[in-house]
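For the sake of clarity, the format in which proteins appear in this thesis is described at this point. The record quoted next illustrates the convention:

___
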Amino acid sequence: MRLRAVYSCLVILLIVFFIAGCSKKEEPKTAPSEPAVAAMGEGKTLFEQKCGVCHNLDRATARTETKEKWSEIIKEMQGKRADWISDDDAARILDYLTSAYGK
């Protein structure tokens, strides 16, 4: 009976190690420079000010998209309300979304 318990524990441990060994390992991200951090802060602020007026911000931050897709979404939002999001603001928002929620 004890031998069966020992074998069961060994099999379970082997399965755990196998699964852990097969898991995807992410490469460490490098820390952004100070100007990049400041630009991200500006982009986040603009994102909250401009996008948060019309809809809940969780809507946008619940997904990740490519830079091209984020650009399309921002262009679409620019068209909904004239002169609300300038091209400069859109570029900063795009940089923020790409760095924080990009693929």
